[in-house]
Amino acid sequence: MSLIGSEVKPFTAQAYKDGEFITVTDESLKGQWSIFCFYPADFTFVCPTELEDLQNNYDALKELGVEVYSVSTDTHFTHKGWHDSSEKIGKIKYAMIGDPSQTITRNFEVLNEEEGLADRGTFIIDPDGVIQTVEINAGGIGRDADILISKIKAAQYVRTNPGEVCPAKWQEGSETLKPSLDLVGKL
Question: Looking at the whole model, is its pTM more than 0.85?
Fold first, then answer.
C-alpha cells in the first residue's frame, strides 16, 4: 500500500537536537514542510555521509521552510553519544529522533523486521502532515540532499499552483505542464 497522500500516523518520540533532548510528535510537523530521513543505525558507514550532507544543506532547506528529522531505531541517548564522538555527526543541528520501539519506523513502512533496523527511507511531508514523496534505497546506496531539495521545490510549486505539474528534470523557474485534453498524445 502506498503512503503517498496519507497523513503521518500519530507518534511521540524523544530526539537529540542541538545539545538537548526534545520531544517530537506528529503534531510537530504541522504548519511546515518536513523531511523524515530514516537510516539503519548510528556508528555505521554510509549513514554519517548522508546525515552530514543533509546538515550541509540545512540552511538551504530552512530557507524553503523545511525542517529535517533523521530517524533510526537507536535511542536519543545513542544519538547524543554519536553526535559527541563523530566529526561528521557533530555538525548536525536538526533533530535526531530515537525510535527504539520501532513505532515510527513501522508507521512509515521502512522497518527491516529481520534486522530490527530502518531501511534508507526518505519522506517529504507537507504542512498538513501528508506524505508527498517516498524514496527507499538499499542499505549500500546513499542519498543526495541536492536531489531532495529539487523534489521539495517541485512539491511546493505543485501545492501552490493547482492544476500544474512538474515534468521530469524540472528545476525552479522552468516550464511546468497543465494537464488537459490538448496535451494527450502530444508529449
Answer: yes
- 135-131-33 Cα angle (round to 5): 100
Nearest CA to 123 out of 92, 75, 155 is that of 155
**CA proximity to 167, closest of 148, 187, 185:** 187
- Cell numbers placing 4: 503517498
The Cα 130–Cα 23 span in angstroms is 20
Q: What does the DSSP 8-state code read for residue 90?
A: G
Task: Name 9's Cβ contacts closer than 8 Å, sequence gap at least 6.
Answer: 26, 107
For 97-117, write each residue's pLDDT tens digit.
Answer: 999 999 999 999 999 999 999
| Cell, residue 52 | 552530514
Residue 63, SS3 per DSSP: helix
Dihedral sign, Cα of residue 123, residue 126, residue 127, residue 129: negative
Residues recognised as catalytic: 47
Residue 139 has pLDDT above 80, yes or no: yes
3-state percent helix, strand, coil for the chain, nearest multiple of 5: 30, 25, 40
3-class state of residue 114 by DSSP: coil
Report the amino acid identity of residue 153. K
